[in-house]
Structure formats: C-alpha cells, structure tokens
Amino acid sequence: MKPRASKYVFRAALALGLAAAAWPLLAPSPREAFPIAEFGRLPVLEGGRVKPLDSFARNSLLIIRGTQSLPDGKKTLPASAWLAEALFKQEAADTRPIFTIDDPDVLGLLGLEQGRERRFAYWQIQPKRDEIGRQAERAGAIADAKRTRFQSAVIQLARRLDLYEQIKNTIMIAGSTDPAGELSAFAEALPGALRAAHGRGHADARDRAAMKTLAELLERYKFLAGAAAFKPLPPLPGEPDDAWTSFGQRMLTPAPDREPHPGLAAYALMARAYRAADPAAFRSALDQYAAWLILARPDDVRRADQETVFNAAQPFVSGMALYIAALLAVFAWWATRREAARQAAGGLLAAALIVHTAGLVARVWLQGRPPVTNLYSSAVFVGWVAALLGAAAERVHRRGFAAAGGALLGFCTLLIAQHLGASGDTMEMMRAVLDSNFWLGTHVVTVTIGYASTFLAGALGIAWVLRRQLVTRPDPEATKALVSLTYGVIAFSLLFSFVGTTLGGIWADQSWGRFWGWDPKENGALLIVLWNALILHARWAGYARERGVMVMAVFGNVVTALSWFGVNMLGIGLHSYGFMDKAFYWLSAFCALQIALMTLGLLPPRFWEAPART
Description:
Helix content: 55-70%
Distance between the termini: 38 Å
Radius of gyration: 29 Å
Order of helices and strands: HHEEHEEHHEHEHHHHHHHHHHHHHHHHHH
Number of strands: 6
Strand order of the largest sheet: 1-2
Strand content: under 5%
Number of helices: 24
C-alpha cells in the first residue's frame, strides 16, 4: 500500500473509533413519559460528596443488582427511572427482581427454590427480612477470613436490603401515598401547635388537635431523618455550605419566620405526580426546583450536569472495545503483513487512548484530585500509562509488540476497573491521611507509573515466550528488537518505582512519623524496585541473557500484582484500604498463569527448535 493511502486507513480507523465511542452521547434518547433524564441531573449529597441522582442511582443498582439498568418488558429501565420508582412508588419497585442470590443456603432460608432464576424481588424476600437481619448480625461478629460461604452471602444480602430500604424511605415513608398532603397538614398544624405549646393549659380543642397532628408527623419525619439514603436538600442562602439535609432533617427544624425549603414541596409534588401518572405535573415541579437550584447552587448544578454526561458517555467501556479492536488489528497485521492492518491498528489504538484520556481527565476534573485516589482509579491509570508507553514505543520499533502489549494491558486494566466499580461510588471521599493532592500527584502517580511499566515489560516477556512457541523460525532481528524494548521498559520502570517509593517514605514520615515501617504495601513497592534492579544487574553481569531477561520480566507481573492487589487482601497495614474477599482466586490464577508461562520460557532450546527437514 502506498504511504498516502496508508494514512487514509489510519485516519479512517481513528475516526470510526472516536465515532463509536461518541455514539452513546449522540444516539437519540428513548422516549419517556416522565422527564427521567432531567430528574437524574438533580444534585444530592451522598457519601460525603455532591453528585447527581443519576450517579447515586447507577451506584446503588450496581451494588444491589450488579448492573446499571434492568429489563422492563421489551425495554430497558435506566437506573434513574428505577430510582424514581423506588423513591415515589415503592409498591411497584418491590416487584422488580433486583436482588441477586446465588447461595443455596440463603435461598433455603428464604424458602425459595434454586433454579434458573438468580434474581428476586423485595416482596419475595420481605417475609424473612427479620431472620436475614439476625443471621447477618451473627455473621458480622465473625472475622472475614473465618466466615462460611453462607455467612458471607447473608451479610451481602442484608447490606443490599438495607440500602434498598433506605432508598425507599428517603422522601417518604414506604407505604405513604401523599407526602405533599403531609406537608400541607404540617404547615396547617404548626401555628395551632405553637399556640397550644405556649397557651399554658388554655389552648382550645383545635389547637390541641393540631399539636397531636404535628407530633405524629414529627415522629414520621424523625424516622425519615434516620433512614434516608442521601440528602437531597442543599443549604439555603446564609446556611453553611456543607449543611445539606434529608427530607426528614429539614422538617424537624422548621422555621416559621421564613419560607420553607423549595426542595420539600418539589420532591413532594414530584412524588404525588409520579403516583398519579401525571408527567406534566412532575415536569412542572421538577422545572421550578431546577430553576431555583441554578440560582442558589450554580456550581453544584454544573458539576452534576457534567457528571451525568460522563456517566452517559461510559468512556472506559468504549475504551475496552477499542483496545480489543486494536489488538485484533495487530494480530491481523502479523498474519497478513498488510500495511493496511498495521495502520488500522495504529488508528484504533490512538482512538482508544484518546477516549481513555478523556475519561481520565473527566474524573480528575470532577473529583478535583490527581488521577489516582483509590484502587479503581489506579486500575484506570495503570492501563492508560501502559497503553501510552506501548503506543510511544511502537512509534520507534514498529513491529507490533509494543502496540499489542499496550492494547492488551489497556483492556485488562479497564476490565479490572469495571469489576472494582461494582462496589459502589468510585469517586468517594478521601481518607484523612490520604487527603493531600501534592503527595497523591507525586508519590502515588509515580509508583503507579512503575506498576504500569513493569506490567508492560511483563507483557513483552509473554510475547517473547509465545512467539518462540508459535513461530517456527522467528526473525532474529525482530527478536533482538523485542528484547531491547523490554530492557528499556524495565529500566524506565526501575526509575519510577524507585523515585515513587522514596517519595512514599517521605510522605510516611510526614504523616506517621517514620520513613519506613515494613508495612506490606511498602514492602511490595520495594520488591518491585529490587526485582527490576535484579533483572538489570543480572543482564549486566552476564548471569541472564535473552531468555533469562524475558522470563524474569514475566515474573515482574507476579511481583507487581502482589504489591498492587495482594497486600490489600491481607486486611492489615496502613495501606490496606481496598480489601476484596473474592479477588484472591483471580489473583492466584493470574500468578499461576505467569509461572506456567515462565516454565514454558525456561524449557531447553531443543523444545524451541523446529525439526530438521529430510
């Protein structure tokens, strides 16, 4: 293919990749009777940060059901639509099969049969709700590592039920029919109740009745104040900026001398309209409240709108698809040696990187933090760095190894991030000891770059092992280029791992009063430094040559995985913030696979050589 024509292939692949990634934002939205998309943009406070209702709905449905939407006949019900139903029409939400139950003993406890159906509705579980709570309380007193499968499953189900019940009791008590009517009754009863309270025994019958009504309503609002899943009402002008309140909290602190919070009537009227199947009334209440929010809380509204767009775009899901497409294009180039396939791979990898970068930058903007703040964001960042390094190295070596390694790591780390994101909000508030943008932007980012580059070196090592097995007579020049590239990546990783670990010691000295405490995470970071240094020294001293360097690079995957995830599973140490009880098996399988590949790479040369022709 001519150079000019090959450029067109690159540009076409890039354009198609970006267009596919943008499609979720450009595609027409399904017609809804109620303005659910606008409802999902309303800002609320939950988990210590302001977020749109859309984010809360997605995170909650992920925790409860494991998905961000659910089937509704032939249609798909978005998370925000499910949330509106759970808030305003609980009896309908109770019929949705959203609770995933796999454990046979838990099913037996509930009196449910184990069959093809894995998801059950609240009404099916509710008769045994108290028993689930008792079993979960008993299991909670047992250490994580000592719990049985049933105990872990019943705790998980109880937590999901708690969240669902909190959602149902955020705006109105489950079973209520007209929160707007209750607000009116409260407003009417308040003056008479105040007169009765100050009447010193001379109150008339109507005032005493008003006082009784008010007392009953206050009991209901007291329950709402403690049960709410989030705080939907922002502070009024003149109140502290962080004084967000729930529906019940706001009603427990009435101010007769000022207008009630606009959000109270808005949510109550939306509930009435939703229950009455009146989209016009719902939109009217929503629009009036949204207009007030724009004037009273413009920054919160803007951030909520931006996060809603980010949620709809799903850049990391699109990035995964583009990385796989780029990897397949590299394979096609190796198989056919056609320049068009190589250019297509380059265009798709560039598109994946652009989408990945856009998602990463959006998270940084929304959080106001450096790119790495928790395990989820570290997976996103590791994949981005690995893909970026792979693309940059491919510009120099142009043999597909770096592009394939970068694309593979980009996909795998985003897949890991998807699973980590199933635990809830991935932009949660920082722990106090980690609340430092300077150290998050230096130590954490630098160490994570070390993770990414070590994984890239390991991927190149795997490519060397598989190439020796699958290619009958590998090109010596290509092999030399692959080994040289791996060596350079290891040196790069050593630099960033060492600098990042040193910066971590300085941060530890400032935070905890000691530079080094042999914490599991510190030891893991040190092991990455030592292993990369060992590879380079073994090569310089002649103890390891081509095969030794490449096989040792593969073991770098094991060292990095244990440092990155393994120490978090120990449940001990100052850095163990991301304990995951199910990840142990996946980590063990990954390490076993790496050791198997190393064994394959260490086979004697006669296993590599093709039989001589006779």
